[in-house]
Amino acid sequence: MRIGELAARTGVSVRALRYYEEQGLLESGRSTSGQRRYPEPAADRVQLIQMLYAAGLSSRTILDLLPCVDAKVNTPESRARLAAERQRIDEQIAALTRTRDRLDQVIELSEGPASGCAHLGFHGV
């Protein structure tokens, strides 16, 4: 299938597909006129790449893990890499939670009568 077809089928932009190729995440052949041609399984590969990006993995990490995915083998190294990524995400969540809690404190203080901040009421929201 051509790049536009793959983009339409997966909901991913043509630009993103080209980026995936540049990063080594996706492969295509070329027609005699030089157009990219993708095999049918490319749509599944793009969906997987999107899922891994959504999970917070970098292109480099995805590239490192794809051989295990392709071979349907999970190794101690790939499991350790996934566990490390999960730990990184947990740390980001904890940091965001602390930031949100601090913001809640600031909001609470700013709503008090001694804050000197004018209280804005939003009605009908």
Q: What is the H-and-E element order?
A: HHEEHHH
Largest beta-sheet characterization = 2 strands, antiparallel
Number of strand segments: 2
Work out the helix count: 5
Tell me what the structure shows.
This protein is mainly alpha-helical. The chain has five helices and two strands, in the order H-H-E-E-H-H-H. Strands 1-2 form a two-stranded antiparallel ribbon. The longest helix is centred in the last third of the chain and has 35 residues. It starts with a helix and ends in a 15-residue tail after the last helix.
List the helices and strands and how they pair.
Layout: H1 3-10, H2 14-22, E1 29-30, E2 36-37, H3 42-54, H4 59-71, H5 76-110
Antiparallel strand pairs: 1-2
Structural key phrases:
elongated, mainly alpha, 125 residues, 62% helix, two-stranded antiparallel ribbon
Structure described in brief:
With 125 residues, this protein is mainly α. The protein is 62% helix and 3% strand.
